[in-house]
Design a protein that fits this description.
The chain has 114 residues and is mainly α. The protein has 2 helices and no strands. Helices cover 89% and strands 0% of the residues. The radius of gyration is 37 Å and the shape is rod-shaped.
């Protein structure tokens, strides 16, 4: 009789353990599903950020090129003006450089495609 009761108790304990294990597996599966969804959202956001970074890098490169052209015009104007003793001619050279720089800055930035 005691042996029968011990087997029944053992069977009940095994059933309880199986129920707990099944519940744990379901909870873990749901959590993994949420994690996969979050990971997918993070991957999509990462792709967006990479594209934005690429676009900003292209704009920075275009701005750097423009700044280089402006600096070159300034250097050229200074070089030309330094060789001339006439003040009015110097002013004309500098005004020409300012106009060229102004025109350069009015143009929209052009982004070179790879």
């Amino acid at each position: 009789m005691n042996d029968k009761i011990s087997k029944d108790i053992a069977l009940v304990i095994v059933c309880i353990l199986l129920i707990v294990a099944a519940y744990s597996a379901i909870a873990t599966s749901r959590e993994l599903g949420r994690l996969r969804q979050s990971y997918g959202e993070l991957e999509a956001r990462n792709r967006q950020l990479e594209l934005a970074n690429h676009e900003l890098t292209k704009l920075l490169d275009a701005s750097t090129e423009r700044l280089s052209r402006v600096a070159s015009r300034i250097a050229d104007a200074q070089k030309q003006a330094s060789g001339i003793s006439d003040t009015i001619s110097r002013i004309r050279i500098l005004i020409g450089a300012i106009e060229a720089i102004s025109q350069e800055l009015r143009n929209p930035l052009t982004v070179s495609q790879p």
